[in-house]
Structure formats: C-alpha cells, structure tokens
Design a protein that fits this description.
Oligomer: heterodimer
Largest sheet of chain A: 6 strands, mixed
Shape of chain A: globular
Distance between the termini of chain A: 92 Å
Number of strands of chain B: 18
CATH topology of one domain in chain B: RNA Polymerase Alpha Subunit, Chain A, domain 2
InterPro entries (chain A): DNA-dir_RNA_pol_su2, DNA-dir_RNAP_su2_dom, DNA-dir_RNAP_su2_hyb_sf, RNA_pol_bsu_CS, RNA_pol_bsu_protrusion, RNA_pol_Rpb2_2, RNA_pol_Rpb2_2_sf, RNA_pol_Rpb2_3
Subcellular location (chain A): Nucleus
Radius of gyration of chain B: 28 Å
CATH class of one domain in chain B: Mainly Beta
Enzyme class (chain A): transferase
Subunit structure (chain A): Component of the RNA polymerase III (Pol III) complex consisting of 17 subunits.
CATH superfamily of one domain in chain B: DNA-directed RNA polymerase, insert domain
Keywords (chain A): DNA-directed RNA polymerase, Metal-binding, Nucleotidyltransferase, Nucleus, Transcription, Transferase, Zinc, Zinc-finger
Distance between the termini of chain B: 50 Å
Number of helices of chain A: 32
C-alpha cells in the first residue's frame, strides 16, 4: 500500500490538525503509539501499519523541512578545491611533506674512506618555476612559454647541507640538486592565486583546471591509478578448490610483500614468498613467541566451539611435526627461508647464519612488514597473524564473511604525488650513492693542496634528478630499482581535443587490472561507487569498467600522520591488546581498534568510542579526512588516515535536522563564509566509502528519519564532470549516457581562452560555438557554458527523402552557408634548424625563382626569411619552410669553413588537398640552442556529406544529405529546421532526455531564458508545456509543418525545436581515400597500406573467397597479381629452381629455362625459404 | 469572391494526432459531374491579394484563390532565386584581429547590401567591371584612448574603434557607378558587428560585391524568411457550456475567441481566427470533444515576407512574380519548340 493512503486516513481521523503544525508537534509525534492508537483489525494486519500517525518517522502534519539551495555548497566546494583538487592536493603534499620525509630518511652521506667525513641534508625546498638560461631579464617562467618553446615547466629543488671540510663544519643553504617538473596550479606554480587578468597576460586560460605537467612542451597527465588497499586483510574463498585465504599486502617505505594465511585440506598455513614451503600456522605462531597451545587456540578461535573444533587439527599438525617450543618452531621455519643475499652488496660474503636467526629476521622484517617489531617483541605480530587466522576460520564457517575485492572501500587511488615521491626517493638515493662514490674517489687520493670541499663535488654531479623526472614523465615509464618496479604508461598526453576531453582526462582513474581478462567483477558497477565514481563515464570495449571517472564532489585523501591518532585512541579509552588474552579479545562486546589496518588496541564501548572520535573530528581536533567506522561482522573499529581513499562531503544530520540551515546558505550566498567554514563549524564532513557504509544518509531532506546521520548535498553530484553535460540524463537509457560521455570528448568547440595563442599538433575549433539552451548546474560549474562545444540546432524529428536512414542527418544548406557547424582545423608543423657537430648548420633559403623572374608557383608563399608569411594561402604541394641542409652534415672529418659547403633542399610542403592558411609562425630556440620553427596551418571547413554530428544523448549520425532551404519544411512562423533527424532513432534508444531537451529548449527560446536539465531535477516538463501553450504552440512540442516541396501541410505533426548538437572530430575530408595506382612497398612490391601512404584498397580474403566462389578466375588473377606485384621469373624445368636471364645457376645450363609470371611476394617467399635451407621447387608441366 | 470559407472542400482538418485533407481536390475528374477545368476568368475572379501589414522590414499579405503549388513556387523563388548583391571575393591586405581571414570574409559576405540589383549585371567569369562589381573598402585600426577615465573597463570608452561595424564599410565608386547605381551603395543595416579589435590591431580589406542568387549561397537571399500559413477556421459544432466558456477561450490565442454574455449565459464566438496559432490546445480537453473542429482554408495563404534590406519589402513579391514569369517564359519557349517539332514531323528532334 502506498504511504499516501496512510496519511489520508490519518487526516480523516483528526481533521482539525493544521497542515503546518509548530515544530514542537513533531517531537510529540515521534511516539505515534501514544496518540490514539487505532484498534488492530484482526483481518487486516496491515491496517494498523497504515493508520499510524507517522510513516517512517514522518507525520502528515510535519512541516516541510527544506533547506533551499543547499546545492550552493557544491560551487563553494569547487571554489575551494577546484575540479582537479585530487591531483593538486597530492602534488602539494608531495612537495611540502613527502619531500621532507624522504630527505629525512636519506639525510646522511658518509665516506668509506674517511670516517671523519659526513654530509647531512637538513632542509629541502622547491622554488618557483624559473628559466634555466642565465641572462634573462625576467626569469619567471610561464607554462605557456614552455608549451611554445618545447621546454619543461620545472622549478629547482634546493637543499640545505651541512658537511665537514677538514675540521670545520660548513653549512650551505640553497644548494640546487635538480629540477622538479611543477604541476600547473599547484602551490609552486606561477599561475596559482592569479587574477583572470594576470592569467590573460601570461596567455593562460582561467578555466583551465591545471593538474598536469608541461614536459618538453607537451602537456602530460599522471593518471590516477587504482589499487587494492595496502596493509589491510582481504579474505577470499576459492570455491573450486575449497580454499579460504586471508592476504595482506604489506607496504612500507623499504619493502612491499604479500603474506597469506590460507587453508589447505582444512589445515591452516602461513605463506610468504620468502619461504619455500607453507608454514603450518601453529608453528608460525609458536615462532612468533606464543608457545602455549591453549593461548594459540584462544587467540585464534576464542571461545566458540565451532572455531575451536576447526582449529584443533592445526595443533595436531604441529605436534605431528614435533614442534613444541619456540626454538623448534624457529628452526623449522629457518630451514625453509629463501636466502636472498644481495649479490652486489658490499662487504665479504656472510656465512650462513643459524636457522633460527634466519627465521627471526624473516619474521621480524619481511613477513607482515607493516606490523612493527620493536625490541624483538613479536606479540603484536602474533596477534595480527591470529586475527588473520580468525578471519579464515570465520570465512570457513560462513562463506558470506569474505571480503569483496571490488568494494571501493578496499581500493586506494595512487596519484601523481605518490608516484613522484616513489620516483624521487629512487633518484635521490641514486644521487646520494653517486655523490658518495665521487666523494670517495676524491678522498682516496692521498695528497691534496686544500681541504676537500664536498660542495664542489656536488656541483659536478650532473642533472641526474632532473633528467630522471623528465624521462619518467615524458615516456610514462616508472622504473624503480628499490621495488624492482617497472611500470609503463603511467603518464598520458593531455587530450586537448575539447575542453571536456581535457577535463575528463584529469578525473580519469585507470585500473591496474589487465584489460584482456574476461571477468565481469572488476568491471561491474559497484554499489559502493555511489557518489564517488561516475556511473556513466566509462569507455566502451576492452577498458569498459576498468577506466573510471571521479564524480563531481569526490576528494582523494593524502596521508595524515597516524601516531597522534593512535595516542588519541588511547586517550579515548582504547586498551593495549598485548595485555589481553584470547578470551578477552574474542569476548562478545569487545571490539578491536585498528589504525590503518594495524591493531591499536581493544575497546568495550565501540559506539561511544566512535561517537567521541567523530565529535573530535567535527570539532577540528583531528584532520577531517580521518575516517572511523565500525565493522560489526568482524567486531572491529577501523580508523583510516592513509592517503588515496575516496571521500566526499555530506551534511551532518543530528536529531533529524540537517545542521546546515537556510541561514547558513544565506551567508554562503552573500559570500561571507566559504566551504571550509562549513567544515570547521561541523556542519559538513567528509565521509570515505567505509564510513559512508556505516552511516545512514538521506538523499533528500524529506526522507530524514530518526536513524539518519547525514544528508546528501545534491543528488546530481553522483555524476562526473563529463556526464554532467547531459541534460535530463535520468530520463535516458543508461548506455546512452555512457556513449555521450565518450562522444563529448570528441566534440569540436572552444578548448580554452588561450586557444588562438596555442600551437598544438592538432587543434579543432568551432567558428561559432554556442552555450546550450538547456544547460545543467554542472555545465555552469565546470565552465562549459564559457567554453562550449556545439550549437543549438533547430531539429525536426521527421523522415525526409530516405537519405536519413540509419541515423543519418539532413542538414539545411542555408544554415551551413550562415556558419552552422563550421570548424577550423589547425595543424602544427615543426622543424629544427640544426647545428651539426662539424660546424655546419641548416639554413632557410629564398624562394626558387623561375625563368620569368618570379618565384616558382609552389614557392609563392615563401617570404624573404624562407618561411611562408602569416595569412598566406597554401595549396597542395606548396612549400612553407624552405629549409636546406648541408650535404656533408654527417661528415665529421670535415674541417672547412661552413660558408662554402654545398646545400641540398629539405623543404616542408603542404599536403592536404584543401587550401590552408598560415596561421602563425614561431621562431625560437630550444634548451640545447637549436632554432625551432613552428608553423601553424589553418583550414576552415564547412560541414559536408559524411561529417559526423551528435546530440548530447549518445545519438550520433553522419550527414546524409544537404538540402536547400526552400526544400525544407517550415512551420507557421516560417522557421525551417537546421537539421532533420529520423524518428526511428528514438524507439530503440529510449533517449527520452533528448525529447525533454527539445521541449525545454523550445520553451526557453519562447521566453528568452536558458532552461536547466540538471540530473534528478531541472526544468519540469509540465512547466515547459505550459510555456509552449502560452506561446501558441502545442503542449506536446509538435508543430504542424508545411512541406517545402509541395507547399501543402504535412499530414503528421512534427516534433520540432532546438537540440544542442555537437560536431565530432571525424570528418570525411580526413578519411576519404581512393587510389588507382601509386606507391608500392619496397620489400614485397605490393601496394602500400593505409591512407597516409596513399595505399591501395585491399581485396581481402573474404572478397577473394567470393570471387573464387563465383569462378571469376581472370578477375582474381588481375586483382591479386597483375594489378599488384606481377613479376617475371625464369625457372628451370629440370631442378625447379629460379634462375635468371635464361640461365639456371644450379644446373649450369640454359636448356630447360621457362619464363613465368608470379607475384613478387611469392618469389620473395621462395628466396626466403631458400635462405633457411628449405627448397621450394616449381614443377612445370606443358599445357595439354 | 471565392466560395465561402465554410465550404468543407476548402478545409484542411486538424485532428488531434494528424492533419487531414491536405491536398486540394478541385481538379478535373475528381468530383463526377463537376467542371473543374482551369478557367482564367474564374480564376481571376477568385484571386485575391490583400496587404495586411507593411513595415520597413516586412510585409504581410493574403493570397487567396491559388493552389498550394503556385503559392509555394513564389515562396521558393523569394527564398532562393531573386538576385541580390553580396560581397563575394574579399582581399585581405592586413588583418591582425583575432577573427581569421576566412571567418572575416564569411561574415562580410553575409552583410546584406542595399544596392538595386537591376543596375548590375551578373559577373560570371568576366573581369570585374563597374557594370558588375561594387567595391567596398574597410580600414580600421584600434587605438588606445588616452583621455579615458582611470579605471574605465568599458572597451568602447577605453579604445577607439574597438568594434568594427558594417557601417565602417566604405563604398569606393568605380567608373561611372556614381551615376548608374542610383543611391550610394551601403550595408542595409549599419549596426552589424563584424569584429572586435584591441589597441594595435588593424584590419584593411577590399571587398567586391557581385550579383548572385541564393541557391548558390544563402548570403544572396533577399529575405530573412518568406513563408505563408493558411487561414485558421474554427468551427463550433455544438454550443460550449457556459461554465467552460472561459476555458474554451483560453485554449486559443488571445483575441481569437470572445465571450458574450447573453441572458446570464456565456456564449463563445470566433471573432478573429487570423490570430489563431493552431496550438490544438482545445483538442486536448475532453469537455470539448466533438464540439469543435479545427480547420484551415487550403487556398488562403497568409504570406509574411521579411526583407533583409536589399529590396523594399513591398517589391519582393512582384520580383518573385517576374522571376516566375521569366521561368515560365523559358519553359514556354521550350514547350513551343517541342510542339513545333512534333507538328513538323519530328525530323528536327533528331538534330
């Protein structure tokens, strides 16, 4: 029964209650039983439920609680955090915190030669980006200059050092050790905190989100990497093998390793890579200093009979193996430890230590390395192992108690900062060891005139760190010696196809999971993704579901120090676990408190503990990104402060009232408070996925019930930035939204305010971009209305001429004449004016002059400097850089003067069949002193047959016909459509959002207002219909059109109005290709492949099959040999081998030679076979 | 005058989900025993052209008594085939503005020019002569205004020539054009924004305006739009109950329906069907089902022509008729040739 009935009946029962009761009433109504409970009806047990005065905690007379415009928190959030906050925060953390930590961990260099020598780093700093050239008036470096000059946007890393010089201790501040590429808009970036005007002076777009690097002139993004969380127990089962395993990836600064506790034949073992065999668990625990069987049993199984029974077999196993004491256990393990001696390590080869010592070392440092062992106190580690055993026992009994690898709470995201810090530590260690060996080399020399100064050695260290960063970021290969990690494809070139594609790239998350495996689990939409990762924005095909995108309000945490948190936990009543026995640990009501996966202690009052902890967090005593939650299944309280957790802000609800009120929003509107004030006041807090799942979050304010803890800020934030462009996405079939997410990135439009000062390899721009008639809040927030990619086309949904089948579109010629869909393509062409080692150099030459005294036709654009003038038209074959290179450039023996060397032409010529114009010419020099010439060539294109267009609803189509305006249908106002779309596009696609977009757009046009199509909200269809009717249109959006061809009214009403259309980058001009004859590949003499090489059109296997089936042998012969690679060979009828000019070299005779025509590729094959000692013979017979 | 507008044969019926009777039926042989052969005197008697509204930019008139094909032919000619003058080749000597040369040229081409097309010939492949080409020049340079108040942000005050408008196009008379062209050529609208400039930017362009028709490029279109709609005709089949009168009225465009009080009863009356926009709102409500019929008069064309400024709006329709007559003339000559051929034994047809 719908709740409405319940309310209706209750209102009948007491009609005198006013609809807006004072809030006091609400409190009363929380106990509905008190207020005249109706007698229970024997026949209808539901009757009782229905006639209650409140339903799910809400009474009919409750005032409608609503904080107007609470969505305004979102722009406030974005103002503070920006769209790519995760990258920038992570980079800032690296520069400000991690760099210092790394320095601290590697801060001392000593010498093997001179024991008195030492060098210490005391401080590290990263400066502002600067030019490397010395003699510049202004050494402030802007990112745009780096883009244009193909240099790296980087800032010096400076350290303060202290070292011994002779007997003195010298302190030197500001010693540069290398340069760090700077993330744009990070705290060290020149652009941070600049006004729009200042940004304009630096040719930078204020809407550009930053978060990427400029390395060697290309913009590089370090994609967010998704990983399984470290230092957490994950329990899994393998139903096929009947195996249960608990695994932990331990990750510390020194080491990464994985430990398992698993069952084999219902016995439990400890497994680690450094052991040859699995270690029976009891032996492992005994080695970890728990000798008593009783204690082991209690710690692992507690007092539960089932667990005890299941565990007892392990005790028997240990007894069978005759392991009773710790010493025996250590010996047992020690004999199974893999010895990994560092072969290249310095010092004499160590003798093998006793087994027990090996075992101690392995257990202390390698197995579960993240659980610290202080002073050889193994008890914490023993308890940790016993907890793992317990989890295995639980999972053995109830297979629901396993963990989900795909649960977002078990994931951590690795960002640019973390990756760079891994890289820096590696580079810095290398730097230090290089420095050390250089210092040793000097110190080894017996006699010196002056005291050795390590600073001078330091200055001759080379740019190892700089080069390491640049190499890693520009190639994307992250190779770390410490972890033997070799990761490729970490960085990507920032796609500047459209503003959205660049933005979409910054929110992208790539998974470590291989794309080829056919498993659905990691690809599926996880319920825990809600609000954190966009449900729509994922690519199709192989990477589907593995590449994800962040939702609009997500934040990724950075590391927060955990010692204060542990201390705080103890202050809040957590007891030391080492003092407890298994009985206590596993007694009901006792909860284990974990901090970042390691056990911190016990608590008997978990709820109070968590509540107090949250109170402190809301009061700002603990970082807002520390999460705390209770896992009731495992009887655990988890406190997480590690980096890489996904979290998002939410409004706190207390006593059924959101803490954010209309008053607060009023402050926000007036601009007196910022988002951070909401955080500090404890009105809003961040929840990570785990804590979110421990909370009760109301989607809307009217859904708040007594148990509610939080309120969503705004439902549309579950979508990401790219999916936020779609109007009314909640009315669309979900794959359509996914398709649009892929296509929005290919749409041509405005890419940035500085688009005309950029020189990109390929740049697509729309001449007249428009902001959409139907926009969304997201569009406004990300600035898509300022940098749009599309135009509002008047669309008639009707069939026209048959050239619109299969999603083809009909375009109005007059619209195209007037600029609809007109776009520009700019292409960069670069050349270096090189200086060669032999002192010769390239040069730019004048145009070649013909006999008539004028420049030759293809040189017409060339100006006296040897480069085409800006604005010059270029036709196919025209030369725009008349470069010449010396003939003897590679001749290093040449010693003559560079003036009188011979030059050969090496001009660059324009290739496209369509005329282009020289848009820009840039002459500059690179970091290594070569002159760089960049020429930007522009084409302006109007849409043509076959160009691709798409609406914002995953409905793409190519232009099928261009129709004159007079042939187009028109409505009573004389409006004719820009585009005609076939109605068959709708039924199967179910893109109702597109229909509503048209309706809202049409209404918007009529009243001169932009309408909203925000997800889960937006302008209501009813209101739109009303506007239409008021303006004399049919409420349904369907107009009566008149045919432009016959002049009679059309017999059907036509859905007619504006829809935002995107022009996609796929244009016929770039793709069309045909050839009659042309180049051939040198090796096989067959026609080349591909459009770029003017290749032939392949008659493939399937086409060949058709011709065989048809029996068209002559056609086959022509296509496959004569038109391709026919070749005449001489063949010996005697030996079957090929000879030449009538002579068989094998038979040494010319008697039996025949001439025959075979494909050259076949001849090549025979020769290649001969080369590997296989003799193919051509057996010839005379025709009968 | 034509047959009554109540003649159901003239009605195009607007049903809730479709339009019925869209085609005319008054052709010979459709109705047995009736003569519908075309007759000039009858046609002429029925033909009505009545101007409803005339302004500087547009004209509205009724054309009654012709078939849709004729009205449509005139509409099509108006859109696509009346010659006008527009800028076609553009010579860019200097352009340091942010607007690219091609885009600037495209924008210039779309500027409607007030030049009488009858005074120029088609250029075709001929050389540019004073008889076929009108030359315009544009030379604008933006400078800083040093007298502007400090802290001024409005570019119009901060700089000179921060905007280029169509009025900046300067006609450069060639040959005897000052005499032959009549009133001096200029853009039809002086306030079309062409580009924006900032200090130091300069544009110098020479433009040639030539005669052409819109089927080549929309810039030669003499009309912003030319279209027609049919006269709405609302038939009230059953009286509308008094209580629904107001609602009924609101189902139509304002001014279409009036309510008259008659002995305490409200009665609805169609007063001005011309204003109806055919929103079909009345067909949506159950109360009015079967009580009202929406129709339009099939041969009553209410034309609206919006001129771009090349021609005065009043001239456009007659221009379209003369173009049509020209086309008919060509057609007629060809048909007569054919006829002569057929009569002459068909020998000529072989050649």
């Amino acid at each position: 029964m719908p709740p409405r009935n319940a309310r209706a009946s209750s209102s009948r029962a007491k009609p005198s209650v006013p609809l807006t009761a004072p809030p006091k009433k609400v409190v009363e109504q929380k106990k509905p039983e008190v207020n005249e409970p109706p007698p229970p009806h024997p026949d209808y047990p539901l009757w009782d439920e229905m006639s209650r005065r409140s339903y799910r905690g809400l009474g009919l007379t409750d005032p409608i609680k609503n904080v107007e415009d609470k969505w305004l928190l979102l722009p406030a959030f974005l103002r503070v955090k920006g769209l790519v906050k995760q990258h920038i925060d992570s980079f800032n953390y690296f520069v400000e915190v991690d760099l210092a930590n790394i320095l601290k961990a590697n801060n001392k260099i000593t010498s093997d030669v001179d024991p008195r020598f030492w060098l210490k780093y005391t401080e590290i700093k990263v400066g502002q980006p600067q030019r490397t050239e010395v003699d510049f008036r202004n050494d402030l470096l802007t990112p745009h200059e780096c883009r244009l000059r193909d240099t790296t946007y980087s800032a010096p890393i400076v350290v303060t050092i202290e070292y011994t010089r002779g007997t003195q201790i010298v302190r030197k501040p500001e010693v540069p050790i290398g340069r760090l590429p700077i993330m744009l808009r990070s705290r060290n970036c020149t652009l941070t905190g600049r006004s729009e005007q200042q940004l304009a002076q630096m040719s930078e777009c204020p809407l550009d989100p930053g978060g990427y690097f400029v390395v060697k002139g290309t913009e590089k993004v370090i994609l967010v990497q998704e990983q399984l969380s470290k230092n957490r127990i994950i329990v899994e089962t393998d139903p096929a093998k009947g195996m249960v395993q608990a695994s932990v990836i331990s990750s510390t600064h020194e080491r990464k390793s994985k430990s398992y506790v698993l069952t084999k034949k219902s016995k439990i073992y400890l497994r680690h890579n450094s052991f040859h065999d699995d270690i029976p668990i009891v032996i492992a625990l005994k080695a970890l200093s728990i000798q008593s069987d009783k204690e082991i049993l209690l710690l692992c199984a507690g007092n539960s009979e089932i667990y005890k029974t299941n565990f007892s077999i392990n005790l028997e196993e240990a007894a069978k193996l005759k392991v009773f004491t710790r010493q025996q256990a250590l010996d047992y393990i020690g004999s199974r430890v893999k010895i990994t001696r560092k072969g290249w390590g310095a010092g004499p080869a160590q003798a093998r230590r006793p087994n027990w010592e090996e075992a101690m070392e392995a257990l202390a440092t390698i197995v579960l390395a993240h659980v610290p062992v202080h002073n050889m106190d193994f008890r914490p580690k023993a308890i940790y192992v016993s907890m793992m055993v317990r989890r295995v026992l639980m999972a053995m009994e109830d297979d629901k108690l396993v963990d989900d690898r795909d649960y977002v709470g078990n994931k951590r995201l690795e960002l640019a900062g973390q990756l760079l810090s891994l890289l820096f530590e590696d580079l810095f260690k290398k730097y230090n060891s290089d420095l050390k060996s250089a210092i040793d080399k000097v110190l080894k020399k017996p006699s010196r005139t002056s005291a050795f100064d390590a600073f001078t050695t330091m200055q001759f260290q080379g740019d190892h760190i700089t080069a390491g960063f640049v190499r890693a970021i520009s190639t994307g290969n992250w190779s770390l010696k410490r972890f033997k990690m070799e990761r490729a494809g970490v960085t990507h070139v920032l796609s500047r196809l459209s503003f959205i594609s660049a933005l979409g790239m910054m929110t992208r998350i790539s998974s470590q999971f291989e794309k080829t495996r056919k498993v659905s689990g990691p690809r599926a939409l996880q319920p825990s993704q809600w609000g954190m990762l966009c449900p729509s924005d994922t690519p199709e095909g192989e990477a589907c579901g593995l590449v994800k995108n962040l939702a609009l309000m997500t934040h990724i945490t950075t590391d927060v120090e955990e010692e204060p948190i542990i201390r705080l936990a103890y202050l809040l009543g957590v007891e030391d676990i080492s003092l407890a026995t298994g009985t206590e640990v596993h007694s009901p009501g006792t909860f284990v408190v974990n901090v970042n996966g390691t056990i911190a202690g016990l608590t008997r009052t978990p709820n109070r503990f968590v509540a107090n902890f949250r109170k402190l967090r809301r009061a700002g005593k603990v970082s807002e990104f520390v999460s705390v939650y209770i896992n009731h299944h495992h009887k655990n309280v988890h406190i997480a402060s590690d980096g890489g957790r996904i979290c998002r802000p939410m409004i706190i609800v207390e006593n059924e009232k959101p803490k954010v009120t209309a008053k607060h929003i009023g402050f926000l509107k007036r601009g007196v408070v910022s988002f951070d004030d909401f955080l500090h006041k404890g009105l809003v807090e961040y929840l990570d996925v785990n804590e979110e799942n421990d909370s009760h979050i109301a989607l809307y304010e009217n859904l708040i019930v007594p148990s509610t803890t939080h309120l969503e800020i705004e439902p549309f934030t579950i979508l990401g930035a790219v999916a936020g462009l779609i109007p009314y996405p909640h009315h669309n079939q979900s794959p359509r939204n996914t398709y649009q997410c892929a296509m929005g990135k290919q749409a041509i439009g405005a890419i940035a305010y500085n688009q005309l000062t950029r020189i990109d390899t390929l740049l697509y721009l729309l001449v007249y971009p428009q902001q959409p008639m139907v926009k969304s809040r997201t569009i406004e927030l990300i600035g898509y209305d300022k940098l749009p990619a599309g135009q509002n086309a008047t669309v008639a949904v009707m069939s026209y001429s048959g050239y619109d089948i299969e999603d083809a579109l009909i375009l109005n010629k007059a619209s195209l004449d007037r600029g609809y869909g007109r776009c520009q393509v700019m292409r960069k062409n670069t050349t270096l004016i090189r200086k060669y080692p032999n002192a010769t150099y390239d040069r730019l030459a004048d145009a070649v002059v013909g006999e008539d005294g004028y420049a030759l036709k293809q040189y017409e654009a060339i100006q006296p400097d040897g480069i085409a003038g800006v604005g010059q038209p270029l036709k196919s074959g025209d030369i725009y850089i008349n470069k010449q290179t010396p003939m003897n450039a590679n001749d290093n023996t040449f010693t003559g003067s560079a003036d009188n060397v011979q030059y050969k032409n090496a001009p660059m010529s324009y290739k496209s069949p369509e005329t282009g114009y020289v848009d820009k010419v840039l002459l500059t020099d690179t970091e290594n002193d070569n002159v760089l010439v960049k020429v930007l060539i522009r084409q302006t294109r109007r849409p043509e047959l076959g160009d691709k267009f798409s609406s914002r609803h995953g409905q793409k189509g190519v232009c099928g016909l261009i129709v004159n305006q007079e042939d187009m249908p028109f409505n009573d106002q004389g409006i004719c459509p820009d585009t005609i779309m076939n109605p068959h596009g709708f039924p199967s696609r179910m893109t109702v959002g597109k229909m509503i977009e048209l309706l809202a757009g049409k209404a918007g046009v009529m009243v001169g207002k932009l309408q909203y199509g925000t997800a889960f909200g937006g302008s209501k269809v009813e209101d739109m219909c009303k506007i239409l009717v008021e303006n004399g249109f049919s409420y349904a959006g369907k107009d009566s059109l008149t045919s432009g061809i016959t002049g009679e009214p059309l017999e059907a009403y036509t859905y007619f109005g504006p829809i935002y259309y995107q022009k996609l980058k796929h244009m016929v001009m770039d793709k069309m290709h045909a050839r009659a004859r042309g180049p051939r590949a040198t090796l096989t003499r067959q026609p080349t492949e591909g459009r770029s090489r003017d290749g032939g059109l392949r008659l493939g296997e399937m086409e060949r099959d058709c011709l065989i089936g048809y029996g068209a042998t002559q056609l086959l012969l022509e296509r496959l040999m004569i038109s391709s690679d026919a070749f005449e060979v001489q063949c010996c009828r005697e030996c079957g081998l090929m000879g030449y000019t009538g002579w068989c070299t094998f038979c040494k005779s010319s008697k039996k030679m025949s001439k025959l025509t075979i494909p050259y590729a076949a001849k090549l094959l025979f020769q290649e076979l001969l080369a590997m000692n296989v003799v193919p013979k051509l057996v010839l017979t005379d025709p009968e | 005058m034509a047959a009554s507008i109540n003649d159901p044969r003239r009605h195009v019926r607007y049903h809730p989900e479709r339009v019925g009777d869209v085609s005319s039926t008054d052709y010979p042989g459709h109705y047995p025993g009736e003569d519908h052969s075309w007759n000039y005197t009858k046609w002429k008697k029925n033909l009505v052209v009545r101007v409803q509204r005339l302004s500087d930019a547009s004209i509205e008139f009724d054309l009654v008594g012709v078939d849709a094909s004729i009205a449509n032919a005139l509409r099509r000619i108006l859109i696509a085939e009346i010659p006008t003058i527009a800028i076609d080749p553009v010579f860019v000597w200097q352009n340091t503005s942010v607007v690219h040369d091609e885009v600037f040229a495209h924008r210039l081409g779309l500027v409607p020019l007030a030049i009488n097309p009858h005074r120029l010939h088609y250029k075709g492949d001929d050389a540019a002569l004073d008889s076929n080409t009108v030359v315009f020049k544009l030379h604008v340079r933006c400078e800083r205004n040093f007298k502007a108040a400090k802290g001024e942000t409005d570019p119009e005050k901060l700089y000179f020539n921060s905007n280029i408008y169509s009025r900046d196009l300067v006609w450069s008379p060639q040959g005897s054009q000052e005499k032959t062209l009549g009133s001096p050529p200029k853009p039809a609208n002086p306030n079309i924004l062409l580009a924006k400039l900032r200090p130091g930017q300069e544009v110098e362009i020479e433009m040639h305006a030539v005669k052409g028709i819109s089927s080549l490029h929309a810039k030669w279109s003499p009309v912003a739009t030319a279209s027609y709609r049919l006269l709405p005709h609302i038939i009230i089949r059953e009286p509308i109950p008094s209580e629904h009168a107001e609602k009924f009225k609101n189902c139509f465009a304002p001014g279409v329906i009036e309510i008259r009080e008659e002995g305490g009863e409200k009665k609805v009356e169609v007063v001005n069907p011309r204003k109806e926009t055919m929103s079909r709102e009345v067909l949506r409500h159950d109360e009015f089902e079967g009580k009202v019929e929406l129709t339009r008069i099939r041969d009553f064309f209410m034309f609206k022509i919006e001129s771009t400024g090349c021609y005065p709006p009043a001239d456009l329709f007659s221009e379209s008729i003369s173009v049509m007559r020209e086309k008919i003339g060509v057609m007629k000559a060809e048909v007569e040739k054919l006829k002569a051929m057929a009569e002459g034994g068909g020998d000529e047809a072989m050649t």
